[in-house]
Amino acid sequence: MQSNKKLHFEGDILKLYTWEQTLTNGTKKVFEHVERRPTVSMIAIEGDYVYIIAEHRYEVDEVVDKFPAGFVDDGEEPREAAQRELQEEMGFKAGKLTLLERLTPRSTFDFPEYVFLAENLIESSLPCDDGEDIIEVKKLPMKEVADMILEESLYYSFTSFVFLKYYLQTHKF
């Protein structure tokens, strides 16, 4: 970003900047850039089953099915955040946690996202104190979750695409 960027908004998860840039043809344009705190998402599996959560999402005012996910806290590594979020949202920690994908878009929106495969789940819970409203933890067959993604009944996320990739690689058709 340019040195003349101006911060217009800073919230808990987002920052909005603008700056004026001279283009190669000599005209000037105002650019906008949004930075979001890094997030983690987890595909928690047990055999041929995957866990999802039903959560009330206040920004859309509805209960949605989604993969467990959350923000990386300041000073926290993504792997640590993934373990913490599993414990807060599902009541499990992973005996084995594997980074499947890292997405770092660098354009108008800058929001690093890490997707982990959580295996060998162990009961372990932490209080969920960040305002999330988890309604239910669901253990579903992987095929059912894949169908939910294709039917667009699972809350949209980058994790959905990573899950489909994992599912196709591990299940022969």
Can you characterise this structure?
- With 173 residues, the chain is of the alpha+beta class.
- It has two domains: 6-35, no CATH class; 37-170, Alpha-Beta Complex (Nucleoside Triphosphate Pyrophosphohydrolase).
- It is 20% helix and 47% strand.
- The chain has three helices and eleven strands.
- The strands form two sheets. Strands 4, 5, 6, 7, 8, 10 and 11 form a seven-stranded mixed β-sheet that branches. A four-stranded mixed β-sheet has the order 1-2-3-9, with no helix packed on it.
- Strand 1 and strand 2 (14-22) form a beta hairpin.
- Helix 2 (142-150) crosses helix 3 (158-170).
- The chain is globular and about 60 Å long.
- It starts with 5 loop residues before the first strand and ends with a helix.
> What is the chain-wise order of helices and strands?
EEEEEEEHEEEEHH
The tally of structural domains comes to 2
What is the helical fraction, as a range of percent? 10-25%
Helix vs. strand class: alpha+beta
CATH class of the largest domain: Alpha Beta
Q: What's the shape? A: globular
Uncertain stretches: none
Q: Tell me the name of the CATH homologous superfamily of the largest domain.
A: Nucleoside Triphosphate Pyrophosphohydrolase
CATH topology of the largest domain: Nucleoside Triphosphate Pyrophosphohydrolase
Total helix count? 3
Number of strands: 11
Q: What's the architecture of the largest domain, going by CATH?
A: Alpha-Beta Complex
**Radius of gyration in whole Å, from Cα?**
19 Å
Distance between the termini: 46 Å
Q: What is the average per-residue confidence, as pLDDT, rounded to a whole number?
A: 91
Strand content is over 45%
